[in-house]
Design goal:
Number of helices: 1
CATH class: Mainly Beta
Mean pLDDT: 84
Order of helices and strands: HEEEEEEE
Radius of gyration: 18 Å
Shape: elongated
Helix content: 10-25%
Largest sheet: 4 strands, antiparallel
CATH topology: Immunoglobulin-like
Strand order of the largest sheet: 4-3-6-7
Strand content: over 45%
Number of strands: 7
Length: 115
């Protein structure tokens, strides 16, 4: 019985350590300029390779633009010209850059579009 409890405890400890490592995968998110007018550059960097999905969304969660979906080794720099997935120009307002990685974690950064 003691061996079983020890094995379970060790397993939980390892899962906790792995989760902590995954949570530390994201290094930095930069939106420049922010607020933006017609164009912005987005840089996302990670401490090790991860599978990511990056999108621009409204406060209610409506996806305006899917910017990237795939593997990132260290960093990714992409530009956004305010054109949404539907091909229309995104109006002024408050939006969120959503970075989902390792199918478990989400990071959010607010951005503003002026004029």
């Amino acid at each position: 019985m003691k061996k079983i409890l020890l094995v379970i405890a060790m397993g939980l400890l390892m899962l906790t350590m792995l989760s902590a490592k995954e949570m530390n995968a994201l290094n930095e998110i930069v939106i420049d300029p922010n607020p933006m007018y017609d164009y912005t550059n987005i840089t996302v960097s990670f401490n090790y390779p991860v599978e990511v999905q990056i999108s621009i969304e409204t406060e209610s969660g409506k996806v305006i633009k899917t910017l990237y979906s795939g593997m990132i080794k260290n960093y990714l720099r992409i530009g956004w010209d305010r054109i949404g997935d539907n091909g229309t120009y995104t109006p002024s307002g408050e939006y969120y850059l959503i970075v989902r990685y390792n199918q478990r974690f989400t990071s959010v950064k607010r951005t503003m579009i002026l004029r």
